[in-house]
Amino acid sequence: MSNVTVIGFGSIGSAVAGIAVKAGSATQVLVRDPEKVEELAGATIEKIGAPITGEVVVLALPYPAIAGVIEAYGPAAFAGKIVVDPSNPVDFETLDSVVAPGSSTAAEIAAQLPGAKVVKAFNTNFAATLASGTAAGQTTVVSAASDSAEAKDALRGIVEGAGLKFSDAGELKRAARLEAIGIHGIYLAVTEQISWTGGLLITK
What we know:
Layout: E1 4-7, H1 11-22, E2 27-31, E3 43-47, E4 56-59, H2 63-73, E5 82-85, E6 90-91, E7 96-97, H3 105-112, E8 117-121, H4 127-132, E9 134-135, E10 138-139, E11 141-146, H5 149-161, E12 165-168, H6 175-190
Parallel strand pairs: 1-2, 1-4, 2-3, 4-5, 5-8, 11-12
Antiparallel strand pairs: 6-7, 8-11, 9-10
Keywords: Oxidoreductase
GO molecular function, one term: oxidoreductase activity
Protein name: Dinucleotide-binding enzyme
């Protein structure tokens, strides 16, 4: 099982870190202020700036914060690693995407980190469904898009190792579609048409 580093410990970060621990991955969590973060059994919590130990790195950060963390570490720190982007680049005032039409956060990250294998994943799932492993009584399904089959296989191992299901969404260019789905889910939740424990349901 791949070692995992989760940068950020908000609702998505804590849920994904929990998945990694449950799957049996050695898990590092990097945050700005470790003293303000509750301990997670099975994970090591350190300050952002500490060396990244995971082979799989999850950038569990708000979209505006991603560029700053990448700049602080530098592209070399991510070279050869699988970098997972669970962000949804949404303007919460308009509930529209803030990236150019046809592009995605994942594409921007891939351009900044040419030596990494970038995966778009976890963004179509609300944190509660990742933490519980269920949505509407069904096992949560994590969709992932990447140009690297190796990266998707590694992520599949973690997701399925934690008891969730995995779906292959295709190449990284499909990340724009996943972000559109994620933002639509946020729109439905913000406008109180669904709850934050619901969302997109994929059944097999």
